[in-house]
Each structure stands twice: as structure tokens, then as C-alpha cells.
Amino acid sequence: KQEVTQIPAALSVPEGENLVLNCSFTDSAIYNLQWFRQDPGKGLTSLLLIQSSQREQTSGRLNASLDKSSGRSTLYIAASQPGDSATYLCAASESGGYNKLIFGAGTRLAVHP
Amino acid sequence: NAGVTQTPKFQVLKTGQSMTLQCAQDMNHEYMSWYRQDPGMGLRLIHYSVGAGITDQGEVPNGYNVSRSTTEDFPLRLLSAAPSQTSVYFCASSYYSSGSYGYTFGSGTRLTVV
After folding, report:
1. Is B42–A51 a contact, with Cβ atoms under 8 angstroms apart?
2. Do A43 and B56 make contact, defined as CB atoms within 8 angstroms?
3. CA–CA separation, B56 vs A113, rounded Å?
4. Residue range B33-52: mean pLDDT, rounded
5. Phi/psi of residue B23, each to 5°?
6. Which of A32, A110, B5, B99 holds its CA 20 to 30 A away from the CA of A17?
7. A93 and B44: CB-CB below 8 Å?
8. Cβ-Cβ contacts under 8 Å for B97 (sequence gap 6 or more)
9. B8-28 pLDDT, tens per residue?
């Protein structure tokens, strides 16, 4: 059974820092790996999706990497801003059939001015 | 373009009561799903649908029913509410294109069972 773990559970950093959020998964036979952002009282917003055949994806200040052999993905946020404060969730999807998402518990990020 | 609309946003139920959480999408997405989010845990899949008239169970289906009579709507029914069903419920719609799936989530329904 696929299990997804995110470390750290919470992170507080000053504005401008570069930071890395970690995600690990137990079954390397994933279809893809997605990173989502969740703001309080809101739904999830998809940030980046990495196909199982890809190594990384970039969008603006965000870069996500995927290493299936080690069961790890990282989300790198460059030059963090207070507006980046949110909970970041990673989700691995299963191969075959419906694209079920298996979520980690998330990393709660606070960027202070 | 509303995306995924969930109603109600908040609900308090007494143990044993039944209710339906509504979910509607206007993007003509083929797939829809329901997740629940509990403190300290990731979202867990309750039920999903791959098209009108087709539904299947996810990881935590007990105590919930779904149906999908139209592409747009995917209601989640709690048959007899229990305190263990206190949670935040998210509905999502998704589509498949060019080898990947795109997801849109609703803003959630916060349910408390007393």
C-alpha cells in the first residue's frame, strides 16, 4: 500500500530564504507526483505535476524534482515571500485504472516579513 | 466559470442523522471524486466516478454513498452520521490529457457530527 510522508510538518522562515520541502513515498511504481497548495478555508490548487518519466518541473520560483528509485520528491521555493505562506501537499498517483491520489499530510509554511 | 462548487460550506449534524453534500462542476470533466481531510493526515479518497453512471469505492468508503446521474453532479450521502465522520470534505473533478491528469478542487465542506 502506497504511503506518502512529508517532512517537515511545519516550517517558519524569514522572507527571501530559499527553502526545500520534502516528500517521500513507499512504492516507486507511481504514475505521477503532484504538488498542491492549500490556503486556509480554501480548496487545493495544483502547482506542479511530474510524470513518472520526468525528473523535474519548474514554474516561476517553484521547482519540483522526482527520484523514483529513492522514493523522494522535493519542492524548491526560491526567494520566499509572505504570500507563499500556505500548506503544501504532495500526492502520488497509482499506475493503472483511475488516477487515485495518495496524499501526504502536508507541510505548513509560514514566511514572515 | 465557477469550477467546482460544494454546498454547504459548514454543517453540524447530530449522530444518526443523514445528509447529502452537494458537488457540481461546470468544466465537463469526466472524472469526479470525494476526499476527506482529517487533522494531521493527508486527504483520503472516499468514492470516485469515471463517468456518468459509473462509481467506485476509494480508501475509506464505509458510511458513504454516491451516485452520478449527470456529468456535472456528484453528491455524497452520509447514511447515518457518526462522530468519526467529523472532517473536511473535498470534491474534485479531473480530466485526462496528453498523458497527465488535471485536477480542480472545491473549497470544501466542514462537517461536525455531535
Report:
1. no
2. no
3. 46
4. 94
5. -145, 130
6. A32
7. no
8. none
9. 999 999 999 999 999 999 999
